[in-house]
Design brief:
Layout (H helix, E strand, L loop, with lengths): L11 H20 L2 E3 L4 E6 L1 H15 L4 H12 L7 E8 L4 H10 L7 E5 L2 E4 L1 E2 L12 E7 L2 H9 L4 E7 L2 E6 L2 H7 L5
Antiparallel strand pairs: 1-2, 2-3, 3-7, 4-5, 4-8, 6-7, 8-9
Helix pairs in contact: 1-2, 2-3
Length: 191
Amino acid sequence: MRRVERGEVLPLADYELIRERFRARVIEHKRTRRVALGPHMSAVFEDRDTVLHQVQEMLRTERITREDAVLHELETYNELVPGDGELSLTLFVEIPDAELRERMLVELAGLEETFYVEVDGHRFQARSETRGVLPGRTTAVHYAKAPLDGDAIAKLRARTGAWSLGSSHPRYLHATALSPATLASLSHDVA
């Protein structure tokens, strides 16, 4: 999948003019790309649209206008765009209670290495792209990429097979079947 290019990023004033419509479109797009993973996690399968939205929102929130800073944000978020033959995910540990969340982040140390995509019983281990994990704990946000083989790519393009997203962490053994709507959206990632 092609990365987001500098020419696609709008200046802040221009973005404000289209923001409401653009956000509504991306939120709807993410609806089928977001899946729950057990009771305390969710994942968003990233693509060019989700990344462009992230860049535009970061520039807006931080009021970033300097060209070097814009390019830095673009480079940083472009790491989330899936490469050829892979799916890209952002995974969120979602525990509102701060004390429980801190305890769970310690109990889930190593979580970032346990994510996988499974297709008809064949498991594709996701490579963690998460940085800044402290020893003896994990983080609340994880970035991962799951490389697929040719058979899985063909099945995704055809929207066939039994697909799931999972974690094999001994303290968080959960898997979620991917819906037909999710597969339809993900099929564009490997088109």
